[in-house]
Amino acid sequence: MKAYELLYFVDPTCNEETRAGVMKRIEVALGDGTVDSVEDWGKRKLAFEIDDLTEGDYTLINFHADPTVIAELDRVLRINDAVKRHMVVRRVDKD
Fold first, then answer.
1. Which of 12, 14, 20, 73 is the most exposed place for a label (fewest CB within 10 A)?
2. How far apart are the first and last CA of the chain?
3. pLDDT exceeds 80 at position 44
4. What's the chain's Rg over C-alpha atoms?
5. Complete DSSP assignment for the chain
């Protein structure tokens, strides 16, 4: 398994139930991958307006998974309306 980092943000007005649902979808998409850490960065000001939002509620997840899982994770995050933007990056410093 390889190390990855996922950074995403949701609308800051979303409730905790919606945020928990996003995390559950991510865990399901990872399959047999393991989540190493989850950091809640909280509200951050966006560099430019996205979907009429000027702030986003950010979350950073470090995890290990097979490379084949990343395409499914990307698909799941793309179709989730709560997630406004996301980025998955391969980490070479934590193999």
1. 20
2. 8
3. yes
4. 13
5. -EEEEEEEEE-TT--HHHHHHHHHHHHHHHTT-EEEEEEEEEEEEEEEEETTEEEEEEEEEEEEE-HHHHHHHHHHHHH-TTEEEEEEEE-STT-
